[in-house]
Design goal:
The protein has 7 helices and 11 strands. By secondary structure, the protein is an alpha/beta fold. The chain folds into 2 domains: 206 residues, Rossmann fold (3-Layer(aba) Sandwich), CATH 3.40.50; 53 residues. Strands 3-2-1-4-5-11-10 form a 7-stranded mixed beta sheet, sandwiched between helices. It is globular, with a radius of gyration of 20 Å.
C-alpha cells in the first residue's frame, strides 16, 4: 500500500475507540520488552495510531513509527501530543507539591516517537536505516497486499533489521481461518453507537477479508463495505524463510509467549533473533 492509497482514511478517526488498547498492551508488552534489548532502536512498521510505538518509547526504547496511512499517523501524533500535555501538567502539579527543602530528583522524560509516512516495502524508505528491533504487529504483513507484495514486505522488514537484531511479526493465523473463519464485531464507546464488523473467511482456495463500518447519523444508518483477498505467510513457510537469515526462529500463540497451535491460535507470533 502506497501513501496515495490510504484505505484507512475512513477508519482512522474511530480506530482507537474500536480497539481495546489497555488490555491488549497489558498482554503484549511483557512479550515485547522481554525480547527487545534495553535502549534499542525500534522500527514499528505499520504503526497505525501508534499505541505500541508509544508504549515502547515509554519503556526506554528509541522508536520510529512508520505507516503508509497519513490519516493513521495523524491520530498517532495527536495522541502523543495529548499524552505529553497531560504528563507535563501532572509533573507541574507534583513539582509544586514538593517541599522546598526536599531533595529533588528529576524524572527522565519519555523520548518522542519519530513518525514517518512511507511505504516500508520501498527500499529507500526511512533512508535505508537499520534497527536493533523491527516489529510488524497487528496484521501488518498481510496488509501489504497480494502474495507478491506480502513477500516484498517481508524482505523489506528483514532488510531493515540490523545484524544481530530482532524481527517480531504478528498476524492472524490463516490455517485457523481456513478451518473456522473469523468474525469480530466492535462497537464504539461513544454516543454514536458505530459498529465495525471484520469477517475473515475461506472462499474456494483463497482467504478473504470483508470490513463493514456501520455508522448512525441523523438520517439513519449508513454502511461502508470493503473486501480484499487476505494473503498471509503460513507458519511453516515463514519459519523456513527466516531460518536462512536469522540464528533462531520461534513461533508463538500471538504475543503471549505460549507455543503456536495451527488450529487453535487466533494469531501467529514470529520471533526471529540474531540477524545474520
Amino acid at each position: 500500500m502506497s501513501p496515495a492509497e490510504d484505505r484507512f482514511a475512513s477508519v482512522a478517526a474511530h480506530y482507537d475507540r474500536w480497539v481495546e488498547w489497555e488490555p491488549r498492551l497489558k498482554k503484549e508488552m511483557p512479550f515485547l520488552t522481554a525480547r527487545i534489548p534495553a535502549g534499542a532502536t525500534v522500527l514499528d512498521a505499520g504503526c497505525g495510531t501508534g499505541a505500541h510505538a508509544r508504549a515502547l518509547a515509554a519503556a526506554g526504547h528509541r522508536v520510529t513509527g512508520a505507516d503508509a496511512s497519513a490519516a493513521m499517523l495523524a491520530q498517532a501524533r495527536e495522541a502523543e501530543a495529548r499524552i505529553a500535555g497531560a504528563s507535563s501538567s501532572a509533573e507541574a502539579c507534583i513539582a509544586e507539591a514538593r517541599s522546598a527543602d526536599a531533595e529533588d530528583t528529576e524524572t527522565p522524560r519519555t523520548a518522542a516517537v519519530e513518525w514517518v509516512e512511507c511505504d516500508i516495502s520501498d527500499a529507500a524508505a526511512i533512508g535505508g536505516r537499520r534497527f536493533d528491533a523491527v516489529l510488524a504487529l497487528g496484521n501488518v504483513l498481510p496488509a501489504f497486499g497480494d502474495a507478491d507484495a506480502v513477500h516484498r514486505g517481508l524482505v523489506a522488514l528483514v532488510a531493515r533489521t540490523s545484524p544481530g537484531g530482532v524481527l517480531i511479526l504478528q498476524y492472524l493465523n490463516g490455517e485457523r481461518i481456513h478451518a473456522r473463519g473469523r468474525l469480530v464485531a466492535k462497537g464504539s464507546d461513544d454516543a454514536t453507537g458505530d459498529i465495525w464488523v471484520r469477517h475473515h473467511f475461506e472462499a474456494g482456495d483463497k482467504l478473504w477479508f470483508h470490513s463493514y463500518q456501520l455508522r448512525h447519523g441523523e438520517s439513519g444508518w449508513t454502511a461502508e463495505v470493503r473486501a480484499r483477498e487476505y494473503n498471509d505467510v503460513p507458519a511453516v513457510e515463514v519459519a523456513a524463510l527466516l531460518a536462512q537469515l536469522f540464528e533462531r526462529v520461534e513461533l508463538f500463540d500471538g504475543l503471549t509467549g505460549n507455543p503456536f497451535d495451527p488450529l487453535e491460535s487466533d494469531s501467529l507470533g514470529v520471533l526471529a533473533t540474531g540477524r545474520r
